Amino acid sequence: MIVDPSRPVFDWAYARQVLPVLMDGLWITVQATVLGMALAVTLGLVLALARRASLRPLAWAAAACIEFVRSTPLLMQLFFLFYVLPVTGVQFSPLATGVLGLGLHYAAYCAEVYRAGLEGVPRGQWEAARALNLGHWRTLRDVILPQAIPPVIPALGNYLVAMFKDTPLLSAITVVELLQASKIAGSATFRYTEPLTLVGLAFLVLSLAAAGVVRTLERRWR
After folding, report:
1. Of 98, 168, 170, 178, which is least surrounded by CB within 10 A?
2. For residue range 182-199, what is the model confidence (pLDDT) as tens digits?
């Protein structure tokens, strides 16, 4: 392969040209990550509480759901939601399907994180709440969860960064996220150095920013 010496390795003018396209893809990536994580932390807490429920069928169903999701690939789950679920009459837009897939997948991991936090609360806290005649849900809200959640914030933050880096999988269900936008831009001119470099920098900067936010929350809740 003969390299043209007059052609720069990194063309800043071309990088500025493709930047608006990449920003559109970045916005999709951020939406998918934020909404998916909101779903994951909410549903994960529900699953964790269900797994610890005194009603055995509910606990077994929650445990089976968690283990099934953790034991199957995220890409397969996205394909199922996008291609199989519409057969049953339930259909979402590609982005909504991606958010749902990310949220369901990481909810299973967040549930295990929450479970570890709940089991780390001394049993005496439950007994003291019962002695004060507090109801089950008030005990959870006012006594147990304020002690169980702060220690697991770093682990939840790790899953936030992991979800952000998993968003390129959404291109498999036609979502034009950040990496897919760079591939489309590169295929138009056969120059991939600039868009892929910008994508790598964007992932690095936003991952570090997310980690910084998690550390701030950890210090505030400590």
Report:
1. 168
2. 999 888 888 888 999 999
